[in-house]
Amino acid sequence: MTRFTNWLGKNADAVIALVLAIVVAVLGLGVNLPNEAEITNSGILAVIGLLATSVLRDRGRRIPVEAEVRDTLRSSSATLGELDAKLTHIETFEQVLSDTKRALDETAVVRVISGAQVAQVLEEARRDTDRWFFKGGTGTYIRARTLPECVAAARRERRTLLFRVEILDPTNVEVCEAYARHRRSVSDGPDATGEPWTLERTRKEAYATILAACWQKQRFAMLDIDIGLSRTMTTLRYDLAASRLVVTRDDPRGEALVVDSTKFYYSWVSAELQTSLDQARRVPVEQARLAPLDEEPTVEEVRKLFEVIGIDLAHGYTDRDVIEIIRKALRAKDPYE
Fold it and tell me: What domain range includes position 177?
């Protein structure tokens, strides 16, 4: 009953209008009542009054609602302002998280592999690469595997091949002796190729790398090869292909570092290798065409080649020494086998 009373109080004007409408409808059906005209007029006036009352009440209700809406909008505006500031902080925080994640990712750019995996990783790097940068000692592995296999792949696919090699200067006795001394300090005995490291071996290995590069250049015109001769030695060897960088030491059994080409350190080392090569003594490999080499070069051809490119063979080298350089150039032993 209380609920009905509350409802009736809230909707009294509508109820009265409904009753009057029913009365007028009854009069319209022909029911005879005294003073019908007055009743009708009074009903109309009552309805108009009720409508006016409803309008006034709605306006009365709307005024506080509008005020409340305005207050709500002001509060919402202030809240949105605070939210915008918080969103700015959130974006800053997200940027910090992104930078932190990137930094963490970059800390993992260098992978460490065992010596047993180096040959496989280098083999994978040679697949489909169109470039190779090397910096190291005498380039034994370059002659044994890297250069011939990369040239064979480029010839098979009829594409160009970019090669940049920096090795020890074989005419610099001091640096060659320092390198041989370093290798002997690591191991007194022969290495994986079966030879001990001496001054003469170091020089012949470097001469052989120069000869191998010229020999390959004469047989594959799309080989763009540049050789630099360094006056300083390094204990590390850098092999940079299109897909990755591999950093090794003199010991084939030692661990190595691998950096994918998508990592920032790859581009850093690439720039460093190019800068280092630019400072080295350049070998004019393009002049090698003036001293043609047979499939199996003769001693006279090799002597002529080194004369043409301006690299002096060591004083006192006999034909046997030159033959040994030829053997090392074309049939180098793989130090990883």
Answer: 110-330
